[in-house]
Amino acid sequence: MDEKDYELLLDLNETKNITKTASRLFLTQPAITKRIQKMEEELKCPLFLRSKKGVILTPSGESIIPYAKEILLNTSRLKEQALASQNKICGTLRLGSSLNYSHYRLPAILKEYTDKYPDVDVQITTGQSKQLFQLLNQDEISIAILRGQFPWDEACHLISTEPMCFVCSMENKGRPLNEYSYIGRHTDSNLTARIQMWLTEHDLRQIRPSLWIDNIDTCKEMARYGLGWCILPRICLGDFDGYIEDLYMDDGSPFIRSTYVLYRDDYGLLPQVQLFLEALYASAS
């Protein structure tokens, strides 16, 4: 079995469909069937069962999936290490970034980075910080830019802190907050708890959101049009033309949101990773 066999196994495990896998790997269905048969002959056991809805992994097939993932990961690391010994900056940068940072900060950093190092294969995953932290633990990404703190015992650096802000339209400026709608936003549990603490400290514990929004830009637009007030991080408010006020906790400390970069120590030794981290830190200074 070779690297392409392991890629085929993992793709079939994901799609459960030979036609979809054939399209994704640019192979014909007969070629995939032949490769499966060859793997089954080599391993001396069936790996897949066919059904009307696609293919199903046998228990033997399921048992080798973690090993296939590990082999591909180690193969990728081997290639990166070989490339690192050359003068050319290349290799792979497997980056995970939180949604807000991806939208408001990362594009400018990546533009400069990829212009300087066009031979680096940049692979980006965006999502909620909690999901990205899981991917980092599973070695599916090598660097994670996360909002908030996570229990990590390898490299962890603070990139930035920013205020959390009260946001409303100019027409609603100064209006008592219990007289109009609070726009709630689905976010991570840590920030949700801190927002609730701020509300409690300011005698607003009984207020319940009349609107629940997933998208931060939608929250801004709702506030812009006077449909309510919300609490948003400063990172997203550069184009907001309404009223913005930094928030403070009851003891006078600023209500802030922090962004961290996490990665495994051995990844930090790779040249393409070191250069990306330099660009990341420079943008935050």
How would you characterize this protein structure?
- With 285 residues, the protein is an alpha/beta fold.
- 44% of the residues lie in helices and 22% in strands.
- It has 10 helices and 11 strands.
- The chain has helices at residues 3-15, 18-25, 29-43, 59-84, 99-104, 106-116, 129-137, 189-201, 216-224, 271-284, and strands spanning 48-51, 54-57, 92-98, 121-127, 143-147, 155-168, 183-185, 211-213, 230-233, 243-246, 256-263.
- The strands form 3 sheets. Strands 3, 4, 5, 6, 9, 10 and 11 form a 7-stranded mixed β-sheet that branches. Strands 1-2 form a two-stranded antiparallel sheet.
- Helix 8 (189-201) links the parallel strand 7 (183-185) and strand 8 (211-213).
- The protein is elongated, with a radius of gyration of 24 Å.
Strand and helix order: HHHEEHEHHEHEEEHEHEEEH
Measured by DSSP, the beta-strand proportion falls in 15-25%
- Overall pLDDT: 89
In helices, the fraction of residues equals 40-55%
Task: List unreliable stretches of 5+ residues.
Answer: none
| N-to-C span | 48 Å
Question: Counting H and I runs of at least 4 residues, what is the number of helices?
Answer: 10
- What general outline do the C-alpha atoms trace? elongated
Structural class: alpha/beta
The largest sheet, given as strand count, sense and whether it forms a barrel, is: 7 strands, mixed
